[in-house]
Specification:
Blueprint (H helix, E strand, L loop, with lengths): L2 E7 L18 H11 L7 E4 L3 H9 L5 E2 L16 H7 L1 H9 L11 H13 L6 E6 L1 H12 L16 E6 L4 E4 L6
Parallel strand pairs: 1-4, 2-3, 2-4
Antiparallel strand pairs: 1-5, 5-6
Length: 186
Amino acid sequence: MTCSLVLIASLAPAQAVFPGGAAAPVSGTMLRRLERLRRGPGAPGAVFAAPGARARQTLEGLGLDGATEAALRDADFGTWAGRFVSEVQESDPARFAEWLRDPTSAPHGGESLAEVQARVAGWMRGLAGARHVLAVADTGIVRAAAVEALGLGLAAHRCLDVRPAEAVRLSGNGERWRLIASAAAL
């Protein structure tokens, strides 16, 4: 059975911040993107949200309710959690560069990109037999799902851009996936 998986990147604050801190207010632009998604294709059979306020706020903005799925949680950014990306770049440039360069490193003391990718891949394998799934998660988790679907290596995470309040559509059987390109929600 083919599973249609729609991943929606959760709302994000106006300035780039590592997930894990207090929820920051979102911009009007984010809310307008969400409104366009609300007009998307029909109702999903199963709805999941990452733990956390941003994913829950996004789901509510779509007029949906869903189960909290721990495998979709934001990456654990350890000591960087809740800090502005620009602040970390300035205060710790060597470790920030290491994190960008090596997907197996976790200089912040949290999860490496490789660990996040493995977690998301495991969740996707568990969707075998599902029909139509909608999931809301942080942009990094949505990017990990796209990398998994395309069978790309970890370095591809830095080559894909998933914007907040936008959707990535995949189709697969839990083991093999395809990215469904769409310009429906412009």
